[in-house]
Every structure is written in structure tokens, then in C-alpha cells.
Model the fold of this input.
Amino acid sequence: MYREILTKAIIAKGDNQIFNQETIKTNKDISKVLGCWIINHKYEINCTNNIVKIIGQFDAFLWYGFNNNTDSDLIKKTFTYQSDIPYNFTIESYPIDDKCEIKSYIINEPSCKSMTFSNDDISIEYVLKVAIDIIGETKIKIKVDDVIIDDNIDINYMKDK
Done:
């Protein structure tokens, strides 16, 4: 004899490594780039027409030298990004609808991969990695046997005394 159980399970998994480059104008003749620090990362995951998209933002602090390295300055810039997250079904082709739940995981927070300059422009290349699990309802079929209850089993063994 078989029984079907309705349960929630991971129906699809996906991940994406996002690379992007941004350029900031400083209005100063840059001599050297000194560092980049990225903080305050915020994001949300949306699903429309079976396309999972991440939309996020973070603050980058860019430190640079100018006037032949006699002065330095710090710029704070908020960057926004968006990217699709490809996924593969783990169970079967399954329509993603409002009943599905998407769990997201930031595998690598945004970080500065490189920072370069040209005249008064600073370019940074950043990278981040995100993964998702799409959870939906599915059925599992199990084989069951007729249960024989032993008269010697104490059915009250878990009750508080």
C-alpha cells in the first residue's frame, strides 16, 4: 500500500556571481588610489514571470591621493545593482507561483576587486555572490505496511510526570 504526503521541499536551486564596474568623477587630479571599503549592503529578491532577480545597493568609501600625493580625500558613493539569478529545478519542471518561497543567501558580500584611476575618474570593479533555494509544495509517495501495535508498548512514556 502507498500513501502520498504533501510537503514543502526545495524545488529549485540557483546562484550567481555578479561582477560590475562603476566610475566616479572626483574633480581633482588624482595621484594614487589608496583604498576602497564597502558597507551597508541591502538587497531584495523578486520573482516575476519565473525570472528571479536580485536588486541591491551598498555604500562604497573610496580613498585617494591628489596634488602629487600631498593630500588625500574620501568619497562616499551609494551604488545600486540588479541581476537575474539563474536556477535549475531539483525535482521537476514546476511553475513558480505565489505559493513558492525564495530563500536567499549572500555567499560573498560585495567587495572591491580592483580600483584604478584616470585623471579625475576612479573606477572600481566589485564582485558579490548570491545563492537561492526555491521552496514549493510537492508530493512524496511512500510505501506503508499494516501497522501491528504491540500490547507491551507504554503509549504514555513521553507524558510529563
